[in-house]
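Box 3.1 A note on notation
Throughout this textbook, protein chains are presented in two layers. The first layer is the amino acid sequence; the second is a C-alpha coordinate string describing backbone geometry. Keep the layers aligned when reading.
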Amino acid sequence: MNLPSPHPSQTRSGVRWYLRHETLLAVLVLVEILIFASLGRRFGTADNAANIVRHSVEIGLLALVMTPIILTGGIDLSVGSVLGLCAVLFGKLWRDAGFPPWLAGVATIGIGSLCGAFNALLIARFRLPPLIVTLGTFSLFRGLAEAVTQGVDAFTNFPESFLFLGGGQLAGLPTQAWILVIAAVGLWITVHRMTFGRSLRTIGFSPEGARFAGLPVERRLVTCYVLAGAVAGVAALTYTARFGTAKADAGMGYELFAITGVVLGGTRILGGVGTIHGTLLGVAAVAILANGLTRVPSLMNIAGELSGMLTGIVLVLALAAGLVPSMIAARRPAPRDSLSTRNSTTTPSA
Protein backbone atom coordinates (compact mmCIF):
# COMPACT_ATOMS: atom_id res chain seq x y z
CA MET A 1 0.00 0.00 0.00
CA ASN A 2 1.34 3.43 -0.94
CA LEU A 3 1.14 5.83 1.96
CA PRO A 4 0.77 9.58 1.44
CA SER A 5 3.83 11.46 2.62
CA PRO A 6 4.52 15.07 3.46
CA HIS A 7 6.01 17.29 0.77
CA PRO A 8 9.71 16.46 0.12
CA SER A 9 10.78 19.92 1.26
CA GLN A 10 8.93 19.38 4.54
CA THR A 11 10.57 15.98 4.95
CA ARG A 12 14.05 17.34 4.29
CA SER A 13 13.60 20.26 6.67
CA GLY A 14 12.09 17.90 9.26
CA VAL A 15 15.06 15.55 9.00
CA ARG A 16 17.51 18.44 9.36
CA TRP A 17 15.58 19.81 12.34
CA TYR A 18 15.42 16.55 14.25
CA LEU A 19 19.00 15.57 13.55
CA ARG A 20 20.02 18.94 14.94
CA HIS A 21 17.50 18.73 17.77
CA GLU A 22 18.61 15.30 18.95
CA THR A 23 22.26 16.30 18.72
CA LEU A 24 21.58 19.33 20.90
CA LEU A 25 19.60 17.19 23.32
CA ALA A 26 22.49 14.72 23.61
CA VAL A 27 24.80 17.66 24.34
CA LEU A 28 22.31 18.89 26.97
CA VAL A 29 22.36 15.49 28.68
CA LEU A 30 26.17 15.53 28.69
CA VAL A 31 26.21 19.06 30.14
CA GLU A 32 23.77 17.98 32.86
CA ILE A 33 26.05 15.10 33.79
CA LEU A 34 29.14 17.33 33.94
CA ILE A 35 27.40 20.02 36.03
CA PHE A 36 25.92 17.65 38.58
CA ALA A 37 29.12 15.61 38.75
CA SER A 38 31.02 18.76 39.73
CA LEU A 39 28.38 20.16 42.13
CA GLY A 40 26.70 17.09 43.54
CA ARG A 41 27.79 14.50 46.07
CA ARG A 42 28.42 11.03 44.67
CA PHE A 43 26.52 11.87 41.49
CA GLY A 44 29.05 10.19 39.22
CA THR A 45 29.17 6.87 41.05
CA ALA A 46 28.03 3.58 39.54
CA ASP A 47 25.48 3.18 42.33
CA ASN A 48 23.88 6.52 41.50
CA ALA A 49 23.85 5.71 37.78
CA ALA A 50 21.97 2.50 38.60
CA ASN A 51 19.64 4.53 40.81
CA ILE A 52 18.85 6.91 37.94
CA VAL A 53 18.06 3.96 35.69
CA ARG A 54 15.82 2.32 38.29
CA HIS A 55 13.83 5.49 38.90
CA SER A 56 13.38 6.25 35.20
CA VAL A 57 12.21 2.85 33.93
CA GLU A 58 8.48 3.39 34.57
CA ILE A 59 8.51 6.89 33.09
CA GLY A 60 10.60 5.60 30.20
CA LEU A 61 8.12 2.83 29.46
CA LEU A 62 5.18 5.25 29.54
CA ALA A 63 7.04 7.75 27.35
CA LEU A 64 7.95 5.08 24.80
CA VAL A 65 4.32 4.01 24.29
CA MET A 66 3.17 7.62 24.39
CA THR A 67 5.36 8.37 21.35
CA PRO A 68 3.27 6.42 18.78
CA ILE A 69 0.10 7.95 20.24
CA ILE A 70 1.42 11.50 19.91
CA LEU A 71 2.68 10.65 16.41
CA THR A 72 -0.97 10.11 15.44
CA GLY A 73 -1.91 13.49 16.86
CA GLY A 74 -3.41 11.99 20.02
CA ILE A 75 -2.43 11.93 23.67
CA ASP A 76 -2.99 9.69 26.69
CA LEU A 77 -3.24 11.45 30.04
CA SER A 78 -4.46 8.30 31.77
CA VAL A 79 -1.28 6.18 31.68
CA GLY A 80 -0.22 7.15 35.21
CA SER A 81 -3.67 6.28 36.55
CA VAL A 82 -3.66 2.97 34.66
CA LEU A 83 -0.33 2.22 36.34
CA GLY A 84 -1.85 2.92 39.76
CA LEU A 85 -4.96 0.83 39.10
CA CYS A 86 -2.90 -2.07 37.77
CA ALA A 87 -0.54 -1.92 40.76
CA VAL A 88 -3.32 -2.26 43.35
CA LEU A 89 -5.14 -4.93 41.35
CA PHE A 90 -1.90 -6.90 41.12
CA GLY A 91 -1.61 -6.71 44.90
CA LYS A 92 -5.24 -7.72 45.36
CA LEU A 93 -4.96 -10.68 42.99
CA TRP A 94 -1.82 -11.88 44.76
CA ARG A 95 -2.87 -11.31 48.37
CA ASP A 96 -6.65 -11.75 48.37
CA ALA A 97 -7.29 -14.03 45.38
CA GLY A 98 -4.23 -16.22 45.99
CA PHE A 99 -2.78 -15.86 42.49
CA PRO A 100 0.92 -16.73 42.14
CA PRO A 101 2.95 -13.61 41.23
CA TRP A 102 3.51 -14.65 37.62
CA LEU A 103 -0.21 -15.24 37.00
CA ALA A 104 -1.16 -12.03 38.80
CA GLY A 105 1.39 -10.24 36.59
CA VAL A 106 -0.13 -11.63 33.38
CA ALA A 107 -3.60 -10.64 34.58
CA THR A 108 -2.31 -7.16 35.44
CA ILE A 109 -1.01 -6.62 31.92
CA GLY A 110 -4.38 -7.81 30.62
CA ILE A 111 -6.18 -5.32 32.87
CA GLY A 112 -3.97 -2.54 31.53
CA SER A 113 -4.84 -3.61 27.99
CA LEU A 114 -8.55 -3.39 28.83
CA CYS A 115 -8.06 0.14 30.16
CA GLY A 116 -6.34 1.06 26.90
CA ALA A 117 -9.11 -0.62 24.91
CA PHE A 118 -11.70 1.50 26.75
CA ASN A 119 -9.82 4.65 25.72
CA ALA A 120 -9.53 3.31 22.17
CA LEU A 121 -13.27 2.58 21.96
CA LEU A 122 -14.19 6.15 22.83
CA ILE A 123 -11.51 7.69 20.60
CA ALA A 124 -11.60 5.43 17.53
CA ARG A 125 -15.22 4.27 17.50
CA PHE A 126 -17.01 7.38 18.70
CA ARG A 127 -14.41 9.88 17.39
CA LEU A 128 -14.15 11.72 20.72
CA PRO A 129 -11.11 13.98 21.30
CA PRO A 130 -8.23 12.02 22.92
CA LEU A 131 -7.48 14.89 25.31
CA ILE A 132 -11.03 14.89 26.72
CA VAL A 133 -11.35 11.10 26.81
CA THR A 134 -8.07 10.44 28.59
CA LEU A 135 -8.57 13.36 30.96
CA GLY A 136 -11.82 11.68 32.01
CA THR A 137 -10.28 8.22 32.32
CA PHE A 138 -7.37 9.77 34.21
CA SER A 139 -9.84 10.47 37.02
CA LEU A 140 -11.87 7.29 36.45
CA PHE A 141 -8.97 4.85 36.76
CA ARG A 142 -7.44 6.69 39.73
CA GLY A 143 -10.84 6.66 41.44
CA LEU A 144 -11.16 2.92 40.84
CA ALA A 145 -7.72 2.38 42.39
CA GLU A 146 -8.78 4.33 45.47
CA ALA A 147 -12.02 2.34 45.65
CA VAL A 148 -10.10 -0.94 45.58
CA THR A 149 -7.85 0.16 48.45
CA GLN A 150 -10.51 2.32 50.15
CA GLY A 151 -7.95 5.11 50.07
CA VAL A 152 -5.77 3.67 52.83
CA ASP A 153 -5.02 0.01 52.12
CA ALA A 154 -1.60 -0.91 50.74
CA PHE A 155 -0.35 -4.28 49.53
CA THR A 156 3.07 -5.33 50.86
CA ASN A 157 5.17 -8.39 51.78
CA PHE A 158 5.63 -9.55 48.20
CA PRO A 159 7.91 -12.58 47.69
CA GLU A 160 11.63 -12.01 47.08
CA SER A 161 11.38 -13.65 43.67
CA PHE A 162 9.07 -10.83 42.57
CA LEU A 163 10.99 -8.04 44.31
CA PHE A 164 14.09 -9.06 42.33
CA LEU A 165 12.37 -7.46 39.34
CA GLY A 166 12.69 -4.06 40.99
CA GLY A 167 15.80 -4.41 43.13
CA GLY A 168 18.05 -7.00 41.52
CA GLN A 169 20.70 -6.85 38.82
CA LEU A 170 21.08 -8.89 35.66
CA ALA A 171 24.29 -8.82 33.62
CA GLY A 172 25.43 -5.66 35.38
CA LEU A 173 22.21 -3.69 34.83
CA PRO A 174 19.17 -3.22 37.07
CA THR A 175 16.73 -6.01 36.24
CA GLN A 176 13.92 -3.72 35.12
CA ALA A 177 16.30 -1.88 32.78
CA TRP A 178 16.22 -4.90 30.48
CA ILE A 179 12.46 -4.50 30.15
CA LEU A 180 13.01 -0.89 29.06
CA VAL A 181 15.69 -1.98 26.57
CA ILE A 182 13.42 -4.64 25.05
CA ALA A 183 10.51 -2.17 24.80
CA ALA A 184 12.75 0.50 23.24
CA VAL A 185 14.18 -1.87 20.61
CA GLY A 186 10.77 -3.28 19.75
CA LEU A 187 9.15 0.13 19.40
CA TRP A 188 12.12 1.56 17.48
CA ILE A 189 11.83 -1.21 14.90
CA THR A 190 8.05 -0.79 14.73
CA VAL A 191 8.09 3.00 14.37
CA HIS A 192 11.18 3.44 12.20
CA ARG A 193 11.48 0.26 10.13
CA MET A 194 7.92 -0.92 9.52
CA THR A 195 5.01 0.34 7.44
CA PHE A 196 3.00 0.53 10.65
CA GLY A 197 5.22 3.33 11.95
CA ARG A 198 5.03 5.28 8.71
CA SER A 199 1.26 5.00 8.78
CA LEU A 200 1.23 6.60 12.25
CA ARG A 201 3.05 9.65 10.87
CA THR A 202 0.62 9.82 7.97
CA ILE A 203 -2.32 9.78 10.39
CA GLY A 204 -0.67 12.52 12.42
CA PHE A 205 -0.25 14.76 9.39
CA SER A 206 -3.75 14.17 8.03
CA PRO A 207 -6.22 11.61 9.43
CA GLU A 208 -8.69 12.20 6.61
CA GLY A 209 -5.93 11.90 4.03
CA ALA A 210 -4.90 8.61 5.62
CA ARG A 211 -8.48 7.32 5.40
CA PHE A 212 -8.68 8.44 1.78
CA ALA A 213 -5.49 6.47 1.09
CA GLY A 214 -7.13 3.35 2.50
CA LEU A 215 -5.28 3.18 5.80
CA PRO A 216 -7.14 1.47 8.68
CA VAL A 217 -6.91 4.58 10.87
CA GLU A 218 -9.22 3.29 13.59
CA ARG A 219 -7.35 -0.01 13.87
CA ARG A 220 -4.03 1.84 14.17
CA LEU A 221 -5.42 4.01 16.96
CA VAL A 222 -6.82 0.99 18.79
CA THR A 223 -3.42 -0.72 18.60
CA CYS A 224 -1.64 2.33 20.00
CA TYR A 225 -3.96 2.85 22.97
CA VAL A 226 -4.22 -0.85 23.86
CA LEU A 227 -0.43 -1.09 23.73
CA ALA A 228 -0.17 1.94 26.01
CA GLY A 229 -2.45 0.25 28.53
CA ALA A 230 -0.53 -3.02 28.39
CA VAL A 231 2.83 -1.32 28.89
CA ALA A 232 1.36 0.72 31.76
CA GLY A 233 0.52 -2.66 33.30
CA VAL A 234 4.15 -3.74 32.88
CA ALA A 235 5.27 -0.45 34.44
CA ALA A 236 2.95 -1.18 37.38
CA LEU A 237 4.81 -4.44 37.99
CA THR A 238 8.27 -2.82 37.95
CA TYR A 239 6.99 0.03 40.14
CA THR A 240 5.53 -2.37 42.71
CA ALA A 241 8.68 -4.51 42.70
CA ARG A 242 10.89 -1.44 43.15
CA PHE A 243 9.00 0.01 46.12
CA GLY A 244 7.79 -3.29 47.55
CA THR A 245 4.30 -1.87 47.96
CA ALA A 246 1.20 -1.20 45.86
CA LYS A 247 -0.92 1.84 46.71
CA ALA A 248 -3.62 3.82 44.94
CA ASP A 249 -1.28 6.79 44.39
CA ALA A 250 1.25 4.70 42.45
CA GLY A 251 2.40 6.49 39.30
CA MET A 252 0.71 9.78 40.21
CA GLY A 253 2.09 12.56 38.00
CA TYR A 254 4.03 10.15 35.79
CA GLU A 255 2.00 11.16 32.74
CA LEU A 256 3.46 14.69 32.97
CA PHE A 257 7.04 13.40 33.07
CA ALA A 258 6.32 10.96 30.23
CA ILE A 259 4.85 13.68 28.00
CA THR A 260 7.77 15.96 28.84
CA GLY A 261 10.22 13.26 27.79
CA VAL A 262 8.39 12.69 24.50
CA VAL A 263 8.06 16.36 23.57
CA LEU A 264 11.55 17.25 24.77
CA GLY A 265 12.80 14.36 22.63
CA GLY A 266 11.48 16.10 19.52
CA THR A 267 8.08 14.52 18.92
CA ARG A 268 5.73 17.15 17.55
CA ILE A 269 2.75 17.50 19.90
CA LEU A 270 0.37 17.89 16.93
CA GLY A 271 1.59 14.62 15.43
CA GLY A 272 3.41 13.46 12.33
CA VAL A 273 7.04 13.79 13.44
CA GLY A 274 9.03 12.11 16.20
CA THR A 275 11.53 9.40 17.07
CA ILE A 276 11.90 6.71 19.71
CA HIS A 277 15.57 7.52 20.33
CA GLY A 278 14.66 11.17 20.80
CA THR A 279 12.16 10.13 23.46
CA LEU A 280 14.84 8.12 25.28
CA LEU A 281 17.12 11.17 25.29
CA GLY A 282 14.26 13.31 26.60
CA VAL A 283 13.56 10.87 29.42
CA ALA A 284 17.27 10.74 30.25
CA ALA A 285 17.41 14.54 30.47
CA VAL A 286 14.41 14.65 32.83
CA ALA A 287 15.69 11.77 34.99
CA ILE A 288 19.19 13.22 35.34
CA LEU A 289 17.75 16.61 36.28
CA ALA A 290 15.53 15.12 38.99
CA ASN A 291 18.35 13.03 40.43
CA GLY A 292 21.04 15.68 40.14
CA LEU A 293 19.05 18.23 42.14
CA THR A 294 18.93 15.82 45.08
CA ARG A 295 22.74 15.57 45.01
CA VAL A 296 23.45 19.30 45.28
CA PRO A 297 23.76 20.11 49.02
CA SER A 298 22.17 23.55 48.80
CA LEU A 299 19.14 22.19 46.89
CA MET A 300 18.46 18.93 48.73
CA ASN A 301 15.59 20.31 50.82
CA ILE A 302 13.69 21.70 47.83
CA ALA A 303 14.77 19.20 45.16
CA GLY A 304 11.27 17.73 44.72
CA GLU A 305 9.52 21.07 44.31
CA LEU A 306 12.29 22.48 42.11
CA SER A 307 12.27 19.39 39.90
CA GLY A 308 8.52 19.73 39.33
CA MET A 309 8.81 23.42 38.50
CA LEU A 310 11.70 22.91 36.09
CA THR A 311 9.94 19.98 34.42
CA GLY A 312 6.89 22.18 33.80
CA ILE A 313 9.07 24.94 32.37
CA VAL A 314 10.92 22.47 30.14
CA LEU A 315 7.61 21.06 28.88
CA VAL A 316 6.27 24.52 27.95
CA LEU A 317 9.53 25.47 26.21
CA ALA A 318 9.65 22.17 24.33
CA LEU A 319 6.04 22.59 23.19
CA ALA A 320 6.77 26.12 22.01
CA ALA A 321 9.92 25.03 20.18
CA GLY A 322 7.98 22.29 18.40
CA LEU A 323 5.20 24.63 17.27
CA VAL A 324 7.35 27.54 16.06
CA PRO A 325 8.49 25.84 12.80
CA SER A 326 4.86 25.02 11.93
CA MET A 327 3.78 28.61 12.60
CA ILE A 328 6.59 29.95 10.41
CA ALA A 329 5.75 27.51 7.61
CA ALA A 330 2.06 28.45 7.79
CA ARG A 331 2.88 32.14 7.27
CA ARG A 332 5.03 31.58 4.20
CA PRO A 333 3.28 32.49 0.94
CA ALA A 334 2.45 29.50 -1.24
CA PRO A 335 4.73 29.22 -4.31
CA ARG A 336 3.07 30.25 -7.54
CA ASP A 337 3.49 28.31 -10.74
CA SER A 338 4.80 30.91 -13.15
CA LEU A 339 4.20 28.67 -16.14
CA SER A 340 0.55 28.20 -15.23
CA THR A 341 0.21 31.93 -14.69
CA ARG A 342 1.64 32.69 -18.11
CA ASN A 343 -0.56 30.11 -19.80
CA SER A 344 -3.67 31.43 -18.08
CA THR A 345 -2.95 35.01 -19.15
CA THR A 346 -1.98 34.22 -22.76
CA THR A 347 -4.76 34.89 -25.28
CA PRO A 348 -4.93 33.04 -28.61
CA SER A 349 -4.00 35.10 -31.66
CA ALA A 350 -6.45 35.52 -34.50
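The CA atoms of residues 189 and 313 lie 32 Å apart. Residues 55-251 form one domain.
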